[in-house]
Design a protein that fits this description.
Largest sheet: 8 strands, antiparallel
Oligomer: single chain
Distance between the termini: 58 Å
CATH architecture of one domain: Up-down Bundle
CATH superfamily of one domain: Multidrug efflux transporter AcrB transmembrane domain
Shape: elongated
Number of strands: 19
Radius of gyration: 35 Å
Length: 589
């Protein structure tokens, strides 16, 4: 009651608060990240263990199995999944919802060190990273040139562009792909080895002992302390040919006597195609807390600076822009919201048949949505499909508060009451029913706060959007609607004719319900029968998944029987092929 009285006594204050909501929403729109999904915050950690030369069975036996055994001791572990492929072992750790991931990551690192004590010599430290579904590629920096080879392009992309690219906010910078790793190759002639009665192991030992990285020392001469570099590393790869393999009695045998030294590249295991040409690219991966649209706009704005870091004959472009899908999704939901508001206003105009009343009801829609947007910003949410979907869902129900209040005001005005009194009495009569209606709707979304895992991350933003919009609609129906009703509605109402279309429809509906109530139990039994049959026949045919299938028209993947994975982007003419075979398994804690 006091809320209505305060609004009618201080109408200018209510208008100022409404304007403040609009201005705050503009600030929220500029500050809130825009993305497809909210931050899922999945409790998952990845461990990637490289070891060159091992096949999948060896990776599983000598490396991955030790990780699986020790990781089951980590607090909060739910289960462990592993995949062993050639040269790499991947271990994925799933944790129970609510686990302290900072503590879990520290424990994983400690058990990694414990596991390495049982592994073969030469095992390097693995990559331990926190996995988040929000860290996804949003595009690719493509490097192309007509004059340079892929090795040169990859070196320039790695050592010049990547350091600057990694400084951009919200972006993670993986190394470039598509070019072969530069490798010094020593080709040994088997016939010459047989002539000298040597093995390849002797060649390997000669290279390892003759090209040793040793730290420089200092030589003090009087007051000078000079650095004394040691020429234990060759400055030119052709000097490797002068390394001795066998010394002692007889002539010394050098590497150049049994083979050649080449500046080549590693064995090709994957490649990238853009417009049917081999190319080098850097995936543009956004961080989980960053906005897709902001990251893409920032990368595009920095393209001229990246181009200035490399020679002019190498062109860098941004391709496979994924922000278009985000923009289309946001634009589509916004359009649906606008159409919903317009249709709602038309329905109010149809039944109340008063343009000013319909205008008051429709005006509350944007104010309620903007107030909900401010609330989402203050609670740390983002603009995504779930929050926009919640706002679009709320449009059809948040007008109920204002519609009920306006309709009751019309009833009091039709009795000839003074405008101020009619507005107050009508709003006061419906304040409790409108409160119960709001609480009933909000109660439907309360269980989402009891969910865990991905379901909670997805549905809590939607529930907050609907709940905040309904709360704002209730407050506006008790403040802004009475003020606008006093200012805009006519002082005297009019009794609606009993022969109007609406009254005739009411009478026919009343007569129909009177007849149906005589057979209430058969009707109820028929309804239950139809509902149960629909659930059994139709419900069992529906699939189960977190998200519906979406055809974005961008990326298509298909598996071939030979174990190759092939991805094609038809709209950009890109093609990437990679082959790997491995072994997977899952271990439960």
């Amino acid at each position: 009651m006091w809320l209505i009285i305060s609004a009618l006594r201080r109408p200018v204050t209510i208008v100022v608060v409404a304007i403040a909501i609009v201005l705050s929403s503009l600030l929220a729109l500029t500050r809130m990240p825009v993305d497809i999904f909210p931050n899922l915050n999945l409790p998952v950690i990845y461990v990637a263990q490289p070891y060159g030369g091992m096949d999948p069975a060896q990776m599983e036996s000598y490396l991955v199995s030790y990780y699986e055994y020790h990781f089951l001791y980590v607090t909060g572990i739910e289960h462990v999944e592993s995949r062993s492929i050639q040269n790499v072992g991947l271990v994925k750790l799933f944790f129970h919802p609510g686990t302290n991931m900072s503590q879990a990551l520290a424990q994983v690192v400690s058990y990694v060190e414990r596991s390495r004590a049982f592994m073969p010599p030469g095992t390097v430290a693995p990559f331990v990273v926190r996995y988040d579904a929000g860290s996804v590629p949003v595009g690719q920096l493509v490097f192309s040139s007509e004059t340079r080879n892929l090795g040169e392009i990859q070196d320039l992309a790695l050592f010049r562009v990547r350091p600057y690219f990694s400084t951009l906010p919200g972006v993670s910078a993986p190394p470039p792909f598509g070019g072969n790793q530069r490798t010094v190759i020593i080709r040994v002639d088997p016939d010459r080895l047989r002539e000298y009665q040597m093995s390849t192991e002797e060649v390997i030992k000669a290279v390892a002992s003759g090209n040793v990285i040793l730290p420089a020392g200092n030589v003090r001469t009087g007051d000078l302390n000079r650095m004394a570099p040691i020429n234990s590393v060759v400055s030119n790869i052709q000097e490797l040919g002068g390394l001795p393999i066998r010394t002692g009695s007889g002539p010394t045998v050098f590497i150049r006597d049994i083979g050649t030294v080449e500046n080549g590249s590693d064995i090709l295991t994957g490649y990238g195609l853009f417009n049917e040409k081999r190319t080098v690219y850097i995936p543009v991966t956004k961080r989980a807390d960053a906005s897709t649209i902001d990251v893409v706009n920032r990368v595009k704005a920095e393209l001229p600076r990246m181009q200035a870091l490399i020679p002019e004959d190498i062109k860098v472009t941004f391709e496979f822009d994924q922000s278009a899908y985000v923009r289309n999704a946001v634009r589509g939901l916004a359009l649906e919201g606008v159409l919903g508001a317009i249709l709602t206003g038309l329905m109010v105009l149809l039944f109340l048949r008063d343009l000013r009343s319909a205008l008051i009801v429709v005006v509350t829609i944007p104010f309620a949505l903007l107030a909900s947007l401010v609330g989402l910003w203050l609670t740390g949410q983002t603009v995504n499909i779930m929050t926009l979907g919640g706002l679009a869902l709320a449009i059809g129900i948040l007008v109920d508060e204002a519609t009920v209040a306006i309709e009751n005001i019309h009833v009091h005005l039709s009795r000839g009451e003074p405008k101020m009194k009619a507005v107050y009495e009508a709003t006061h009569e419906t304040i409790t029913p409108r409160l119960l209606a709001m609480l009933t709707i909000i109660a439907v979304f309360v269980p989402s706060f009891l969910m865990v895992g991905v379901s909670r991350a997805l549905f809590v933003p939607l529930s907050l959007a609907v709940g905040l919009a309904m709360l704002a609609s209730y407050l506006l129906s008790n403040t802004l609607v009475p003020v606008l009703a006093v200012w805009l509605l006519r002082a005297q109402g009019h009794e609606e004719s009993s022969d109007s279309f609406f009254h005739r429809l009411q009478r026919r509906y009343t007569e129909l319900m009177t007849k149906v109530m005589k057979f209430r139990w058969p009707v109820l039994a028929g309804y239950l029968l139809i509902a149960v049959a629909a659930v059994l026949l139709i419900g069992r045919q529906l699939g189960l998944d977190i998200f519906p299938a979406v055809d974005s028209g961008m990326l298509q993947l298909r598996m071939r029987a030979d174990g190759h994975t092939r991805g094609t982007n038809r709209s950009h003419g890109a093609d990437c092929t990679q082959s790997h075979k491995g072994r997977s398994r899952r271990r439960q804690s």
